[in-house]
Automatic annotation (TrEMBL):
InterPro entries, sorted: Marf1 (IPR024768)
GO biological process per UniProt: regulation of gene expression
Source organism superkingdom: Eukaryota
Name of the protein in question: NYN domain-containing protein
One Gene Ontology cellular component: peroxisome
Length: 191
């Protein structure tokens, strides 16, 4: 789910929080960026993390993300609201599985989802749940950046699934050092 080039990555967490609040969803909010974090520039990771988004490194993109989603569901029993921002359609079955277990799925859409763009642009509700259009969400909220509150991080804000490592939320530099370490690299090669 790439950030558009003209968007300051530091506003992503606050924008998502504001949009969810505006839709009437209440309660604690955890935002987690999941992916192969070594493929993301360090300054982008630092900015994303500073906006209140937790980071979770996975060894493989699709299966790693699916495993984290199912792990998350074991820690957060339904009924819970769940939103996955991803352009990958492969996660549809995972979301359907979570919906069948009682999770309220807030769907995300991208510009190529032409049939749903109108409802997404209005951040409106449909029969299939609330839809977000990623680029549109950031555009709509961009002007309100100064008023957005900083999101609180959950307890496991920095995770490397490759090495089964959880780092304290205050130790971003240790986490990044780990991702670029020889030991981590060897585990990635094993996978």
């Amino acid at each position: 789910c790439p950030v558009p080039a003209d968007v300051d990555v530091r506003i992503i967490g606050p924008c998502i929080k504001s949009a969810v609040d505006n839709l009437g969803y209440t309660g604690p909010l955890n935002i987690i960026a999941i992916g192969i974090l070594t493929d993301v520039p360090l300054d982008v990771l630092r900015a994303i993390y500073s906006s209140g988004i937790a980071l979770h490194h996975v060894p493989t993109e699709m299966n790693g993300i699916k495993n984290v989603l199912y792990w998350w569901s074991t820690k957060n029993p339904s009924p819970t609201n769940f939103m996955l921002l991803s352009g990958e359609r492969v996660f549809g079955a995972t979301l359907e599985s979570l919906a069948s277990e009682g999770y309220n799925i807030i769907r995300s859409l991208f510009p190529y989802d032409a049939n749903k763009v109108d409802s997404a642009l209005n951040l409106s509700f449909t029969g299939e749940g609330c839809f977000f259009l990623w680029r549109s969400l950031l555009t709509v909220l961009r002007s309100d950046v100064d008023e957005l509150e900083k999101n609180e991080r959950g307890e496991s804000a920095l995770v490397c699934s490759t090495c089964d490592l959880k780092v304290d939320a205050k130790d971003f530099e240790r986490f990044i050092t780990h991702l670029y370490s020889k030991e981590h690299g060897l585990k990635v090669q094993d996978i």
